[in-house]
Task: structure prediction
Amino acid sequence: EYLEDVIAYSDSIAGDSIRATMSIENPIWTSSDNYESVFEDFEGLVDCADFYVPAFLRLLYAPEGAYDKDLRATIKSTLLGWQFWPDIDASGGIGTMHIWTENHQINFHIAEYLVGALYPDDTFT
Result:
């Protein structure tokens, strides 16, 4: 019941992430067009954007054909191009993302490991 309330009433990253994680059984992520703002937040290093990582990974590890193949490709390219370590980027900043708490560091390390395991021959940028 709590998760249903979060999903129904939250316009936060947490709510989006939960909705995306549940999307295989209850498909809401049907195409990357529907989630343009999610990818913008993620790529822009908006605070808590790393909380999308578990949802992205859930979708990437889903069976082929479970959802739109273009969405899978968008998620893959987004993750391969993401900053997996919270260091300073070329522009001199890290967006508004808070990075030095345990929960964020766990997300970074999980993402590095699982994306690397899924795409061992691809280059991360």
